Amino acid sequence: MSISNNEKESGKIVHGIAGVIVCEDGRVLLLRRAADYYNFPGKWSVITGHILPNETSDEAVLREIREELQVEATIISAGSLVYIRLPEVTLVIHPFKCKISDYQFTLNSENECYQWVLPKQIRHFDTVPQLEDDLRAIGLFR
Predict the structure, then answer these.
(1) What domain range includes position 34?
(2) What's this model's pTM, rounded to 2 decimal places?
(3) Confidence class of residue 36 from pLDDT cuts 50, 70 and 90?
(4) How far apart are CA 83 and CA 14, in angstroms?
(5) Is 142 a member of any domain?
(6) For the domain that residue 97 is a member of, what is the CATH number?
(7) Could you give the CA distance from residue 14 to residue 88 in angstroms, rounded to a whole number?
(8) Residue 115 β-bridge partners
């Protein structure tokens, strides 16, 4: 489900991605954002980011995984869009289920640690607000 540059921003709508990394046993990679991160510091999340000009949502999720984990990834599937309505903007999140090429990865400065967890365990973490919606959109959460 890729979008073109012309569709990325219109008025107060901003498109972004959520990359949910899954491993063979069904666990999901959760990342805890750095304490000094500008958006939801210290909260648990998945790979997230903006879609750049002239970039599709598919390209954006793969780029963000490369930037945040320093590994290559493959998209398994795309989920339905998740809408987050904030007072000043509506975020349209394009969630993807992905797998990574190497489990020996390096976190960039956006995140301070990680854990592999089963989707049902995510409720026990202090997460960003839309995380359950992102997982539901790709069929990993009920």
Answers:
(1) 5-137
(2) 0.89
(3) very high
(4) 10
(5) no
(6) 3.90.79.10
(7) 11
(8) 30
